[in-house]
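writing this on my phone so excuse typos. first protein, seq and then structure
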Amino acid sequence: MSKLSQRHLLGIKDITRQDIELIFETADNFKDVINRPIKKVPSLRDVTIANIFFENSTRTRLSFELAEKRLSADVVNFSASGSSVKKGETLLDTVNNILAMKVDMVVMRHASAGAPHFLSKHIKANIVNAGDGTHEHPTQALLDLFSIREKLGSIEGKKVAIIGDIVHSRVALSNIFALKKLGAEVLVCGPPTLLPKFISSLGVQVELDVQKALAWCDVANVLRIQLERQQLKYFPSLREYTLYYGINKKMLDVLDKDIVLMHPGPINRGVELTSDAADSHHSIILDQVENGVAVRMAVLYLLAGAA
């Protein structure tokens, strides 16, 4: 029986190409499940999953919660804003208290890079990283690649441009690792101040002209400007960023080919993407949202050892 090579999903860097392909095959089956009249399966009926979010999240937390309920798991939601974390309780104490309630799996988002890795060394439950600082966001990368595969048939040999705030993005790093593992060519594009110094060492091309990046790629994955993570001023103004790096439908229409447009959300409409681009036939943004539930169902199912 097929199983993942790891007990946890901490980052794309830690898993193999075979793991990714197994997750996709499993997600294909779950996508059939969530599109039928009865959207529930009893696969994780005896499993308790705690969603522990130390950072604000709407889409990711809802997507995980829906995936867990579709699998018939028991779900516990924990938000740091209304918890003893505010009273000075440590991360390890918080999670140990939750585990004392006999939780089997922890889905965690944390502002500190490496927090899920730290926990995996101290507790017995399976851990899924739902985003750690500016490090990784593995399930987002998996659903992004699953969506590309669904739209274009495969990922091998495809040209994918990641455009926007690369330096603050955990989505960018996870996507680069996953795309490279599945044989895609990757290009990053954004203002020099928003590109990490080490980025070319990851085997990606760097382009500063957004129109050239669009002309090169088969898929453009456009990232949000993460103002909440920016301690310094990385560009003069949002208006100036939009002028040089914002994407509108006119820019897509002048290309001599159809490209696929993606965004991990939430979109800053009128900043990195105009509404006419985000809602155009190029866009698979809503497909990404739907696929997120199927992919997260696959990850949880496989980690629970149900495969």
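second protein below, same order as before
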Amino acid sequence: MSVRVPLAVASCDFRQSGARLRASLALSSEDQEQLFKSLTLQGVTGFVQLHTCNRLEWWVSAQDVDWATQMLHTAWRRRLTNGDDTVEPRIFRGASAAEHIFRVGIGLESLVQGEREIGGQVRRALQVAREATRSSPALNIVAGVAGRLAAKVRQGSSPNMNTPGMHTLVSEHLGRLLSANDTVIVAGMGVIGRRCAETLQERGFHVRRFNRTVDELGQYEALDRMTEVLPEVAALVLCSASPDPLIRVGMLEPEGGLHVVDLASPAQVDSALATALGDNYHGLDGFTSSPGVTLEAADEMRYEHLVKGAVKDYLERLAHHRFRGLAQSNQAQLEQVLDADLPELLDRYSEGLGPKERRSLENDLRRLFRRQAWSIRESLVALDQEEEPPPFRLPYPEDEQC
């Protein structure tokens, strides 16, 4: 089934730019709301921002996806703060946008292919949009299909499979730099922070976990006391989601030999201090220049097959939603004809027919009415494919603020 898909995506990931530039593109909640209000005047009905350590993406739903992508591109350029005019977003429209979102959601577009963390990040981004009333039926259907896709990926994987992720790269990297039994701090106990701490501990390091909120079991130490113990450790892994740098000039000695791994976006180490640390600073860009981790060929083929199935599932559900009212009315009318009108008509005009002939006539008429109802449904879908959406060409001057 081919249905017009009202989705557009503007994407920038680790293959296109550095982490600090991607962070400059990220919108705060207030900025997202302001941009969404501006875009709704141009026919946009939903907006989602996906911001992870390796990508920044804006997803929108709109009747005119070509016009919507122009609006996204204009807003994108205004967010760039470092004067870099060379970074352009990758643009996806229609069914290609849906396919891209599903590929992202199962890690096919990740530095570490097949990572599980990205699925949760996609789910949270869609949830944030719903809670902020920036979602739409087309994006809500994306959320449902993406969830089912993730479940199918898990079902086809070994239950004991050690799923790779950024924590894998961090563990291997520090394993080459440090000695066994060295102490490592992991700051920020979100999903990635917890995975990093677990993987480093399995590798033999002594791990101290710091978090803004201290847990009831006492596993986490208070984040505001972390700088006191930095002279005692060999490495610091930053996974915090703080909007401002946690580590600034003066908090540690650049010559002290401490290795600092910064997995956050925006970066958690002040840029001046990151420069002063030299080779002891390991930011996201350093990891993205590594070979990364790729899926085995068989797994990649299975993931690709599942994505194609997800796109088909999405198109069918989108068509069902778009024509739900008409389809329900058509179905109700069909049931009225088959269950009431047809028996009454036969009672009135089939006098003289034997039981066998009457059943044959009734079955033929039932098939005829069902075929007609199905033809109406198919015509609606075909109409959706052929009709161009009404264009949105409202004024959008270059100096208007998004």
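The chain has three domains: 7-160+295-321, 166-288, 329-386. thats all i got for now
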